[in-house]
Write a structure and sequence with these properties.
about 45% helix, globular, about 375 residues, 7-stranded mixed β-sheet, about 15% strand, alpha/beta, 3-stranded antiparallel β-sheet
Length: about 375
């Protein structure tokens, strides 16, 4: 089996082996010190320095998204959401759920977000902007500089879902005035699913502590912030994933640090896209994250290719849902894959296309 999926990804052997070794009990000073050290290293990778400004929890990425809306916004807020796909739309659904006022910038497929999209919303008393910085449903990477400048000029909080951006693309939290960063274990960190993280700016941390308690008992950030100075959580964390995290952070250091790690992913993404174009595949026109590449299909169903790869070769890529299901699938460039793996994948894709066309002809 080979994973070219967005998450979980093809894990590295040393990280996978962590689970075999077993784990210690987590309500100990030793575990707390491990956590504090790892969170500090993560903050360095995020480019932020807020004291006790990074918490972790047992949750999928959507759980963390939910918790952020519940803890960081109120019915007095007026929010602007970049809605360019399934995950941008999820923020709209969450604001509907919590009855938070919002407007959404709705982008069509293959429409690039520009500064012009934001102009009508200038000086309209919005309090926060929410963006899934890399819209994982399509592959578009939004321009953080444009969003940062807009929020700064309008005195807005900037809330970023970086679940499929962090450790795939360059990301600097303090540099761009980002108030919230959401990320999780199973994408750029290349760990098992089950753990999510939320990083705060100093002003957002202050806001959270001053706001009334959220609706959720389990996801009350005040409790997490109150425990994080000793490396603990209010409830049982995904202990195995925290030990995997230490291994992954060591691997990034051994590779030469964040820049060198990102360069490896950039190299794979460029190689994949160049090969795709040389073979006649159609790619989106918008800027894409290095995390994945979307391939567009016209002659055969993209979903049929996904199924053929899975059933015949045990190769997994990410299909799309909805109206893009037959037109698009997404191939990840993170995790333990190589250029030779990419070559093999394209060989198998071409076999799949040929066999699907043959089957249609026989029908």
């Amino acid at each position: 089996m080979k994973l070219f999926t967005i998450g979980p990804v093809e894990m590295y052997p040393s990280t996978r082996a962590v689970r075999i070794k077993g784990v210690q009990h987590f309500r100990t000073t030793e575990y707390g010190n491990l956590v504090k050290s790892s969170l500090k290293r993560l903050q360095n990778l995020l480019g932020t320095t807020t004291e006790d400004g990074l918490i972790y929890m047992a949750s999928s990425g959507t759980g963390a998204m939910d918790a952020v809306i519940d803890n960081c916004l109120t019915k007095d807020d007026n929010v602007l959401i970049i809605n360019g796909g399934a995950f941008g739309h999820r923020f709209c659904e969450l604001c509907d759920w919590y009855k938070i006022k919002y407007s959404s910038i709705d982008l069509a497929w293959n429409e690039t977000l520009t500064a012009e999209h934001l102009h009508p919303y200038n000086n309209q008393k919005y309090t926060a902007l929410i963006v899934n910085l890399h819209e994982t449903g399509t592959g578009q990477l939004y321009d953080i500089k444009i969003l940062s400048e807009f929020c700064h000029s309008n005195n807005m909080y900037l809330i970023v879902d970086a679940i499929s951006t962090f450790l795939a693309d360059d990301y600097e939290m303090d540099k761009y005035g980002i108030d919230i960063t959401i990320f999780s274990s199973q994408k750029g960190l290349c760990l098992s699913p089950g753990m999510s993280f939320v990083a705060f700016s100093e002003r957002m941390k202050k806001r959270i502590l001053e706001l009334p308690n959220p609706q959720s008992y389990y996801f009350n950030f005040k409790n997490y912030i109150g425990n994080i100075d000793r490396g603990q959580t209010p409830f049982t964390p995904p202990v195995c994933v925290m030990y995997e995290l230490e291994d992954m952070l060591n691997m990034i250091d051994e590779a030469g640090g964040k820049e060198q790690w990102l360069a490896k992913i950039d190299e794979k993404a460029k190689y994949f896209r160049a090969k795709a174009k040389s073979l006649g595949f159609k790619l989106p026109e918008f800027p894409q994250s290095n995390l994945l590449t979307s391939l567009y299909f016209e002659e055969v169903s993209a979903y049929d290719v996904f199924v053929y790869l899975k059933d015949n070769f045990q190769i997994y890529i990410n299909p799309c849902g909805g109206e893009l299901a037959t037109k698009l699938f997404r191939v990840s460039h993170i995790g333990n894959t190589s250029v030779s793996d990419i070559d093999d994948l394209f060989d198998k894709i071409q076999i799949a296309i040929k066999e699907i066309k043959r089957g249609k002809k026989n029908d």
